[in-house]
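thought: fold this chain, then report.
action: predict
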Amino acid sequence: MGFFEGIRYRMFRKKAIEEAQQTVNEYFRLGPLERSAAKAWSAAALAFLLENEETPNAIGFTRALTYMHGEIDNGEPDNLKKIHDQLISFQRQANASYSTANKCIANGMPLWILSIRGIMYPEIIVFAALAWDVIDNVDEDEYANIYEQIHGIFAGTDIQKKLSLHSIQHLERPRLFRMRRQNNLAPQR
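observation:
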C-alpha cells in the first residue's frame, strides 16, 4: 500500500467507524415496533441482495454472507470495497424511488452495509454485533405480522420467493457478529 492509498484507507476507516457508531445509535433509539420493522426490512434487503446474486451483475455478496456465517476459512471475500459501494448504491437507488418495495429494501440496507464494514474493519465488528443485538431483540409476533405485510408487498416477484425461504424469514445473526458474553469485545468464531 502506497503512501496516498494508506491515507485514503485511514480516512475511509475513520469515516466508517463514525458511521457505524451513528447507525448503532439509531438502532438503539428504535421502539419495539420499529425494531420489528427494521428486522423485516433487513430480511427484505437480504432477499433483494440474494436475488441480485443470480444476475449477471452479481457483486459477490453471497460469498461475503458465507464468510460472515463462518463457512469460509480461506480468507476474506474479494472486492469487499466493491460490495460495500454497491450496497450503498442500491440503498440510494431504492431511496430515490417512490415504490414501497424499494423503500423496504432501502430501510433494510444499513444492517448489511454495517455487516460488510465489520468484515472490512475489525474495529467495526462490535458495532455490527450491537446492531444485530437490536435486530435479534424483537417481539416475534409483531415481527411475523410486519414480515407478512412485506411479503405481500413483493407479491409475484422473485424477491417474494426468496422471502419465503426459512433462512431469510428467520434472519439468523451471522456467526462473525455473535459476541461472547464474558468478553463483549471478542467475537465468536
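thought: worth noting. Residues 3-187 form one domain.
final: C-alpha cells above.
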